[in-house]
Amino acid sequence: MDGISVSLQLLQRAVDAVEQTMHHVLRSEPDVHFTSPTDLLSLSPAEEERVRNEETTSNLKRPELAAIQFCLMSSMAMLAVCHSLFEEPSDQTPFDRERKWKKLASDAKTAGRTAYRAALVLSDPASRGE
């Protein structure tokens, strides 16, 4: 086995572990609300405010669970980026290569945004009852 295939196997194990953790921790809980900034742009101002209020309320009710879900979502997105970077590109057209890089950028943004949301939940004094 070459180094890349071993790395891909290890990454797959990490993905499996994160998925199992998400299932175990979150199986009996309703999802924590998360709407991407891109999705918010398509909403009317009133609808955007409603969605943001729902997210805030959900995060304040269960801050630890929200932070856990956001951290696990971030981990999954970063593992997807790593997996894509390890894949050996076969003769890709310029269009395919551009599409791949855009997906990598999107996954990295998702990872960053969800990690940032975890930080916001954890640093909000209201979530600690202060």
Question: Overview of this structure, please?
Answer:
This protein has 130 residues and is mostly helical. It has one domain. It is built from five helices and no strands. Helix 1 (3-26) runs antiparallel to helix 4 (63-86). The longest helix has 30 residues, at 94-123.
Structure summary:
With 130 residues, the protein is an all-alpha fold.
Shape: flat
Percentage of helical residues? over 70%
What's the number of helices? 5
Task: Compute the average pLDDT.
Answer: 84
**Contiguous uncertain segments of 5+ residues:** none
Distance between the termini: 54 Å
Computed CA radius of gyration, to the nearest angstrom: 18 Å
What is the number of strand segments?
0
Determine the structural class based on helices, strands and strand pairing. Answer: mainly alpha
Strand content: under 5%
Order of helices and strands: HHHHH
Number of domains: 1
The biggest beta sheet, please? none
